[in-house]
């Protein structure tokens, strides 16, 4: 797999009302949040149900945090990709990106560390679709790519393991999660994609290239994995930061420590 440090990513996210995360207010603990305790022997099951409830509510929106919006669809202003090592060598950008599929998010496990308060969350997405406008020069595997136009990518049966780095922050009499980083690994059972107007509109080359990439989706998926993983990391980080800047952490875990 291509080394991630060989790539530079610039992602401008207009997700969930970002970057204006200071807006809105919830009045007390919402009913959809299940409060858990580290001291509970069933803490992991409780925490898993609590995070599932949060994602379910983000499909319709959270009262008091209307600026947050919903997670399906999500909009990304621009993704800038530079990668020059391994099976993928591209200078590309995606713009006016729409991501769908997070409405069907299933949380199979959420484990919170009682030492550093980081999370390990297992997420199941039956299907995710990313579509927008692209500009690209480079290659994927042995295929040279040059074009600009509409594109979409559709991985299926995606199992994501997200590890989140957090610090605790006290303000206004509450404890909050300060989410500083996310790290994602995933597997998929299929990948479909299409890039229009490849090779300046030479239709025969465009059709044959898209067919080749779809027929060979497994090596294509592995080659694109650093790029897709980083995109998912940035999406989830934006969601986590915006939400947990607004909702106190003790609503999720009652026995988090306080400095006082």
Descriptive account of the structure:
The protein has 3 helices and 9 strands; from the N terminus they run E-H-E-E-E-E-E-E-E-E-H-H. The protein is of the alpha+beta class and 260 residues long. Strands 1, 2, 3, 4, 5, 6, 7, 8 and 9 form a 9-stranded antiparallel sheet that branches. The protein starts with 6 loop residues before the first strand and ends in a 16-residue tail after the last helix. Residues 1-9 and 14-22 have low confidence and may be disordered.
Concise structural overview:
The protein contains 3 helices and 9 strands; from the N terminus they run E-H-E-E-E-E-E-E-E-E-H-H. It has 260 residues and is α+β, with helices and mostly antiparallel strands.
Instruction: Give the helix/strand class.
Output: alpha+beta
Low-confidence stretches: 1-9, 14-22
Distance between the termini: 47 Å
Main pleated-sheet profile: 9 strands, antiparallel
Radius of gyration: 20 Å
| Overall morphology | elongated
- Give the quaternary arrangement of the chains: single chain
Helix/strand order: EHEEEEEEEEHH
Helical content stands at 10-25%
Provide the fold topology.
Blueprint: E1 7-14, H1 43-60, E2 74-83, E3 88-100, E4 106-112, E5 119-127, E6 129-140, E7 143-171, E8 174-187, E9 190-195, H2 203-215, H3 217-244
Antiparallel strand pairs: 1-2, 2-3, 3-6, 4-5, 5-7, 6-7, 7-8, 7-9
